[in-house]
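Standup notes, protein team

Yesterday: finished cleaning the Paenibacillus alginolyticus set.
Today: Ger(X)C family spore germination protein structure.
Blockers: none.

Input for Ger(X)C family spore germination protein:
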Amino acid sequence: MKRAITTGLFLFPFLFLLTGCWSRHELNDISIVVGLGIDKAGESYKITIQTVNPGQVTVKKGGSSNATSVITYEETGMTVPEALSRMSVKAPRYLHYSHLRMVVFGEDMARAGISKPLDFLSRNMDMRTDFYFIVAKQAKASEVLKVLSAMDPIPANNMYTKLETSDKYWSATGSMNLNYLLQELATHGKSPTMTGVEILGNRKIGEKTSNAQYVDPPALLIYSGMAAFKFDRFVGWLNENDTKALNYVQNSVYQTTGYIPCPGAEGNITMQVIRSNTVIHPHLVSGLPEFDVNVRIDQDISDVECKIDLSQAAVVAELKQLSDSKLEALIGESIAKIQKKLGADIYGFGVAFHHKYPKSWHQIKNWNEVFRTIKVRVHVDSTLRRVGTILQPINQITTE
């Protein structure tokens, strides 16, 4: 008996280390939130959430083909958490955020500043940090979250996978998660950017289940350029070329495609970039910051529309020179444009200068104003790895 009592007293403190399932939620008691939209409504916030309708996502007998796979709820409040709490009178179940995939800022909300809504998103312990941020282009976040997709029954998942794919293979978009966004907002010398999303077609039809039943949907969500921020406020849009230039400079190009005109002939030659590496070199010249941007790329020829002999070393060297010159012009012109129009260092030149010249950096009061006047020189060095399984273009073979 004494041994049993002694053993029990010894094991009793360890019971407090066994948390069990104290925070569990049954699936029947929760609504899974996959999309969150934040719009400005005067002095208040208009919050839209996209929740999964499990009865329509799960394949089973008796499911109604006319019902949507997701349900959206809207509410306003002076703060984001207040608006979400107000939704309890509309949503039948507890809102669960651990599977959140996309957060959409309306353009008006982005112009007003995103730091206050971000405070809630970063504090909420139910949210993970792997969801992506995007900005609705000339639209409200609520309108974006209501457009149904034909490829994926859950629109937020469709936007998530589409952004990951385009970021990897096209490099005219950019994926921004919570940790990276907070880091850029807290970093002097680097302004954040977010991919823009645009609604093409009829927005009213896009909210109906019939939109997902067309081969060519009447309404479609596409990613279009990027939104540039100065501190936490949206200041302007980057087009496709500006976005590609940004990704090259900040070394975030995985794969992409471009073309150059055929030398001395009509048509184009398509180049497939398979590898890219960029290094920014800051300099202090007469007390003023200057930068050299060195871009090295490996690329393949994926398409030839003119008569050209790719077996000749002189021809390959000419293609390299044309490719280097075009990319240098694209990046250089884009940087000059952003300097003049936006005055926001979205490239991270300030960070590179701070690392190399910390004493000079601390003497600068407003880096974005200095950014407008800095000299940037772009140098591209490309290597042509492969020309494909044929040397002569098809039109040359068929005419000989």
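Follow-up from PR in the comments: Confidence is low (pLDDT under 50) at residues 60-64.
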